[in-house]
Design a protein that fits this description.
Blueprint: E1 20-24, H1 31-43, E2 48-50, H2 69-81, E3 84-89, H3 92-101, E4 105-108, H4 110-113, H5 116-126, E5 133-136, H6 143-155, E6 161-165, H7 182-191, E7 197-199, H8 201-205, H9 211-220, E8 225-229, H10 247-256, H11 267-307, H12 315-331, H13 336-359
Parallel strand pairs: 1-2, 1-8, 2-3, 3-4, 4-5, 5-6, 6-7, 7-8
This protein binds phosphoenolpyruvate (PEP) and manganese (II) ion.
Length: 361
């Protein structure tokens, strides 16, 4: 389904151009903490303040958010700093309370966007309001589930829509708390180029030390903004202490980020790009032609094996071929990961085609 969207430039709550920055603590903990953090961020020129009021925690007994009183603190942030405010909603009740309290924007968390029942409940609660909503990716790397959440909101009339990428849960050991899964970011960006796209390096990285590299990478992929957790005293934060920055830390981070243009109007750039794109188009067509020839040979091999009553899959031969390709690729400066990915995909299709031949009567 094509999303019916109102451009972010017309939402009236972000100062463009990129990156749009949303900052504030993981959780609203006390009125003092909220106001002190908001003042620090406002002095940096940040216009959108975030704070979680209802917190989805892995274990019971952890700090699960301050609830209703937090909404009053957000109102004070608006009055005293002029900032806009946003918070996470996960149920119809949260939506109703936020709308009544004048919250300027909502976001849907990763555990909620993974749940179509909750997404429908939230979408229904939002019918008739024009509050902007940002949807975080579901915890599992399922792009369609993410898109489905957007569709439910859009069908309920939410046109001020955007997304936040916060990485995917993973059992793989990696330094980051969540797998950045850049491939999914590229896919989502390509499918919905007009959708405002934020990165959340805080939940992706899980530690302060990763924030700069993840923020830079996100902007280099052309994302429009960042949601970063900031707390006036991170070490004593009641949730996500290791990943939050002080407002001063955020200032430092933002000063180190290099913002590249998403495109350039210069004629020289356009001409140069047109030439390179033309070269790529020709190479891609050549690759397609080669793949077709290779598949033809695969089918002949299938027939030959069938005639001689030989099994299709000879795993040891494939290991050998793949290793040779990886070695040759390395000599050409092509990474092992890339070559393995490409040739395993080709091999899989080749086995499928040979099986097809085998099954023919
Ligand atoms: C949050 O933004 O504080 C949060 C809970 O994020 P996520 O849904 O990405 O885990
Ligand atoms: Mn958090």
């Amino acid at each position: 389904m094509k999303l019916d969207l109102i451009p972010v430039s017309e939402w009236g709550i972000f100062t463009l151009p990129r990156p749009m920055v949303i900052a504030g603590p993981c959780s609203a903990e006390s009125e003092g903490q909220i106001l002190e953090t908001a003042k620090g961020l406002s002095e940096l020129g940040i216009h959108m303040f975030r704070a979680g009021i209802w917190k989805p925690r892995t274990h019971p007994g952890c700090f699960e958010g301050i609830g209703m009183p937090g909404l009053k603190w957000l109102q004070r942030v608006k009055e005293e700093t002029g900032m806009k405010v946003c918070t996470e909603v996960a149920t119809e009740k949260h939506v109703m309370m936020c709308l009544a309290a004048g919250v300027d924007m909502l976001w849907i968390g990763a555990r909620t966007s993974a749940n179509p029942f909750l997404m429908q409940e939230i979408a229904d609660a939002l019918r008739g309001s024009d509050i902007p909503v940002l949807v975080k990716n579901p915890v599992n790397p399922d792009i369609d589930l993410w898109v489905g959440a957007l569709e439910r909101l859009n069908l309920a009339g939410v046109k001020k829509l955007g997304v936040i990428h916060r990485g995917f849960s993973t059992s793989e050991k990696m330094g980051y708390r969540n797998d950045p899964g850049w491939k999914s970011v590229i896919e989502m960006r390509t499918r919905f180029p007009e959708l405002p796209f934020f990165a959340d390096p805080s939940h992706m990285g899980g530690k302060r030390e990763y924030l700069l590299e993840l923020s830079q990478r996100s902007l280099d992929l052309g994302l429009d903004g960042l949601m970063i957790e900031s707390h006036c005293n991170p070490d004593v934060a009641l949730s996500d202490a290791k990943q939050q920055l002080t407002p001063d830390g955020l200032k430092e981070l933002l000063s180190q980020i290099v913002v590249r243009d998403n495109y350039s109007d210069s004629l020289e750039y356009k001409e140069g790009m047109d030439q390179l794109r033309a070269q790529i188009d020709i190479l891609d067509e050549n690759i397609l032609g080669m793949l077709k020839s290779r598949m033809n040979v695969s089918r002949k091999m299938g027939q030959y094996k069938k005639d001689h009553n030989v099994a299709i899959l000879q795993a040891s031969r494939w290991d050998q071929v793949l290793q040779e390709m990886v070695n040759k690729g390395a000599e050409l400066g092509l990474s092992e990961r890339f070559i393995e990915g490409v040739f395993n995909a080709i091999h899989e299709e080749s086995v499928r085609a040979q099986n097809e031949v085998l099954e023919q009567k």
